[in-house]
Design goal:
heterodimer; A: mainly alpha; 70% helix; B: 5-stranded antiparallel β-sheet; 5-stranded antiparallel β-sheet
Amino acid sequence: MITLKVTVVLGENVDVSTFIRDLTMQIMTIAWLVFLVSWVIGWAIKGSPIPIHRVKRTGQTLVEDAVLAAFWLAMGSTIFAIISYITSSINQPMPPPPQP
Amino acid sequence: MNVLPLAFNLAILTYFIGVLILALPIPYRQLKKWGVRLMSDAIIAAVLVSAYSMILGIGDLILSMLGYSWTGFMAWLTERTAILVTALVGLTYLTSWIKSLGYSLVLSPLGLASTYITLALSAIRMMYFIASFIWSFRGELLALGLLLYSLPFRVGKGVGAFFIAASLVLYVGFPLMPAFVNVFQTAVPEPMVSNKSFTITCSIVDVGGEPLPYPVLRIYKEGSTVPLGVVKGDNKGAVVLGGDKDIIPRNYTFDVEVLFMGYIFKPSPRVLRILPNKTSYKLGVRNIIYQGGLAILIPSGFDIINIKYMGGKLITTVSAPHEAVNEIRVVKLNNVKIYSLRINGREMHCSWSTWKWNGISLSECVLNLSNIQLSSSGKITISVFYEPKNYPEPEVEERRVVCYESLVDIIMQYVSVGIAYIYSFLFLPGLYLAALTAMSASLARVIGGGVKLRFI
């Protein structure tokens, strides 16, 4: 049995950024687990001895979506790093503010 | 700024929520599409957050390319505020002036003009407030927009996009406002600050060119018999018209009369034409010779040959061209003491009749020339030795000249100034501001939902 524990501590020194980062990590973990579950369920449906084409198609779709999700999950950090890198490399230094 | 990392983290969170939804083992197409939508939102938000300083720089870049600056805009605003304040001060002055003239009934159009100008001033103040806000807080506005934009599930996408667009469009748009307003406005009328009319000085002199002290000028509209005004002069014989007290239009013609020592004289020139460039006029009274509280009144038929003003002595030589006119009057203040009154060297005895005119006690003696033996040349020399006195100020109640045509002109001018100000200070900037808001909304639509990325 898999136990998921999401803890939110709203204490005095709660940093929102840290909280969001933690949340992101937890969601990422959950997403990986959900991918596995989807993949397994997809294959299970696809491989089940049910001679209905639509059911087999649903299993296939689930597997495809799960694989795509896994791909974007794996690429996630890289995508944001690339965005940061590209925009910071073409950024101009900010001009001095105008004086009224 | 702490908002930007937060917005970036929120974008990452949105992305992974999208991936999670995409990975869910639920074979429901719409749900999967939501996942993809969230991922694309997250990527766009991340791009925008990373390009924060670039977006800020774009505004300055566009402004410098167009050749406009915030410095110029602020100067323009200050200049307009100064114009409005000047107009308002002028209007307040005019209102109090008309009140002092006793024409309070005609003040309601001025109240209207005052309302217009105050309204325009409020508009400028609001504009100044919005402009200062954009100029000072556009970075914060942009960051807040990015934060709202990055929130998961498109919670603040619309409003975030509007903030981002507004921070850019308004920052570029405000310095362009002078150009927009200048294209559409007609010439802004100059506010009239000082006097609505102008000042003219009339010097009243006797036949020898000596000033008549405290003359009273009675002014008629040309051709009319009802006096338009009664104005008292000073002890140097100068009567000042216009200024704060009278409303006289330029290019106007008056008939005038001079009241002095109880007599009404027709001066030369009789008709006063107010010319735009002329501010001083000389009105000569041909029938009077005056010095130190004593006057010799010469009828029109006489030619004056010589006058000697000698302090306590007044000598004049006249010639009588025909015998029909044979009276010369000597008028003096009651307290003036006559030592000797001679005609052609012969001592005359006068019977003085006295009367009071506007608080001044006067005495008059009529010299009948028919009894006097004239010289062969027909000249009459009158010499008076006396004790001179200062002529007192007559107690005449003044009635200042107010030409209604001119007053209505002034008021209508102010009302039209007020309307012009409303157009150029409230309507045009308001229209421009509305256009900027519309542009911001359009740009917000482009940022907030125009682009779609396909991942599956």
